[in-house]
Structure formats: C-alpha cells, structure tokens
Amino acid sequence: MNSMHSRLLAIGLGLMLSLTSLVHPAAAAEPAIFPDIQRILDAGLIRVAIRAKDAAPMIMTNADGSLTGSEPDLARDLAKKLGVAAEFVRTAETYDGVVELVARKQADIAVSYLSGGMQRARYVFFSRPYIQQSGYFFYNRAQFARIRHDYGVENVRAIEEIANAPELYVGVIGGSVYETKRKRDFPESLLRQFDTLDEMVKAVRAGDIFAAISGGLQVDYYMRSHPATAIYVAIDQDIRQPDDIRIAVRADSPNLLRWINLYLENHVGMLDDAEIVRRYLNRKKEVQ
Fold first, then answer.
1. What is the CATH number of the domain that holds 116?
2. C-alpha span between 216 and 220 (Å, rounded)
3. Buried (b) or exposed (e) across 95-134, using 16+ Cβ within 10 A?
C-alpha cells in the first residue's frame, strides 16, 4: 500500500512540475548577435578612422589635442548607441588614406567627411548619406577679370574650354574625391594639390592659382570665419558638384553597415550643412 501511495505521489509531483513548466517556460536563450557586431562589442570599442589634418567644422583639434567637430561628435554618439567607446585612428594624411585604413581593417569605420565615389566603393561599404552638399568652385576675382579680357569668356564655366592655359591652375585637396573627379572630367586641367583648405584659399586669394574646388560645407565655414576673403575670392554659384557625405565600413561587416544605416535613419536623418556651420561658429565664439 505504501509503495502504491509513493508511486502515485511521484506521478502527481511529475504532473505538477510538467504543468508548472508549461505555465512558466524556461527563459529562451539570447539570440546570437551578428559576428561582425559581436567583434566590436567584445572589444568594447569601435575604431574610427578620421583624417589626420583638420577640416573645420567637421574635424578640429582642441588645444589639449582632443578631437571636436561634427564628425567626431557623430562618431561618439554612434559608439554610445552601440554600447562601446570610440577610438579614433588619425594616421591617414588624405581622405583616400582614411578609406584605405578601413579597407585594410586598421579601422572598423571612417567618419571623416567622406564622399563615396566609385573607386572607393571597390574596397569598402558606404552608408546612406547623412549630409547633402555640393562641391564649390571658387576663384580669384582679379584674375577672372583679366581672363575675361584676354580670352573673351563671359563666365567661369566657359573657362573649362581653355583649362590648359598656363595661368589657369585649379587647386584640390590631395587624395580627395575632387582630385579624382577633376582628373576624370577635365584631364587637361592643370591641378595643384594642397593639404588643407586654408592653404588652398590663401593661394587663390594671393593669385598663385586661379581657382580651387572643395566641399561646400567647409568652404562656407571658412568664408564666414574669414569674411574679408570675399573681397578677393568669389564662389561660382553655377558650378556645383553633388557630393553626399557617408560613413565608410569594412567590407567584412555587412551587418554593422545595416546597423549604421538604421542609426542614421532613426537618430541623425539628413543633417543641414548650414546648421552645422552655424553651430560650430557659435562654439568657436564661445571659446574665444
């Protein structure tokens, strides 16, 4: 009798445990995170390539050596949303060099005022754009007056037809998408490379070169920071090159790319270039 009672008790307990497990199932295992994202989470940081030379207001270096500007600020926020720290890699002197850091896996991403470009897209992924801007063509006012007289042209665009004239050097930032486009679209154009926009604008203002082309956001910031420049240098409003700004991502990180695109869509949108200029000009005034 005792044996039968014990057996019934055991069966009853088993049924109760079974019912309990149905009502309160064991917690499901955490879904596996994509390997390319897990790698960054395991490291606790995301390596962000940024050009070694400043390009205000996107990339600027404080007196203490720390990074500021719209690009480092964006990179820090992206890293925070991902749950890691941002580690900046500033060993590349050119924009092409920044892309190469990502292609060689020396950085996970690049947030460095980068245009896409067909050449660069052979090595890395590019995110959706987060800044829409145009490349600005700016020139020396006095030289243009002389060229109009000497060559009989009526506007700056017509100068492209005489682009191989010895005095018509056009400046570009070395290793930039503008250098690539200029060589492709105007192979006879006389180019002179510069490291920074500041050097390039000064060369145009002094008449060392006739004109230059660079990103509109950066040119706007420079002209508003140095208003006297407009006396000597003009921006041609008719010559604009669409030039969207994107994040570069390692080619072995397609899931990270998808995450970044979602981040840009939900938290960034399309940044207004004029607002970026205003914001960092105001910060500059506060520091002074």
1. 3.40.190.10
2. 6
3. bbbbbbbbbeeebbbbbbbbbbbeebeeebbbbebbbebb
Nearest to 210 by CA among 178, 166, 275: 166
Nearest to 280 by CA among 213, 224, 203: 224
Q: Does any domain span residue 8?
A: no
* Number of domains observed in the structure of the chain: 2
Beta bridge partners of 115: 245
* Residue type (1 letter), 92: A
Look up the domain containing 220 and give its range: 134-242
Q: What angle do CA 9, 14, 15 make, to 5 degrees?
A: 100
d(CA 9, CA 164): 100
User: Do 73 and 166 fall within a single domain?
Assistant: no
The answer on 143 and 231 residing in a single domain is yes
Collect the ranges in the chain with pLDDT lower than 50: 1, 8, 17, 19, 21-23, 26
Q: Is residue 190 one of the residues assigned to a domain?
A: yes
Write the CB contacts of 23 (distance below 8 Å, at least 6 apart in sequence).
none
Same domain flag for 119 and 142: no
Q: Is the CB of residue 171 less than 8 Å from the CB of residue 204? A: yes
pTM given for the model? 0.83
Q: In a 3-state reduction of DSSP, which class is residue 34?
A: coil
Helix (H) or strand (E) holding 113: strand 109-115
pLDDT of 210 reads 92
The answer as to whether 154 is a domain residue is yes
Contact yes or no for 247/114 (Cβ under 8 A): yes
SS3 174: coil
- Does residue 134 contact residue 217 with C-beta atoms inside 8 Å? no
